[in-house]
Amino acid sequence: SHSDPCVFSCERTTNGSTQSLIVGCYVDDLFVLYSDDGPTSLYSAFTTALASRWNVEDEGPVSDLLNVDIATDADCVLLKQEKYISQLVDTYLPEGVPSSFHKNHAPAADDLPLRVDEALHAKEQGVAPDHAIRSTYQSLVGALLYCSTQTRPDIAYAVGMLCRTKHVVSDLGHARRSQT
User: pTM higher than 0.85, yes or no?
Assistant: First the structure.
């Protein structure tokens, strides 16, 4: 692939029928998409060649990949991160989701830009961030960034704003308010 060095694709046309095979590699796992899995298919040839060189295991249809749940329904593929986001809530909000959070509101507090400016200004004034808070904050913002790039583009603005303060944060309040 021109856009990702870990994705490989191949097409083969036989008797006017085109078959496609796309292979994504992540460490020691392969994610294979194919248009046909018959005995003479490109997919069959690939998996046979792969099995002849290495000890491989077909784990069947994919249900999750890198904390993204994958479901198919007819011609639709649904990507979700409900379990991953629940784990984040358990980790970063151990007392549970505050009652001030609302699912039907924008995923950022109205005062988020002001809070980002305050954090950046505090750094200019020489306020040193607490290293434990900064580490926790960076971990949380990184996890939220992963969600925003995989399944939750609706939180991208808020997470982008939070990323601006990863090195200067002095409290976790505005990151917690941005979670949905």
Answer: no
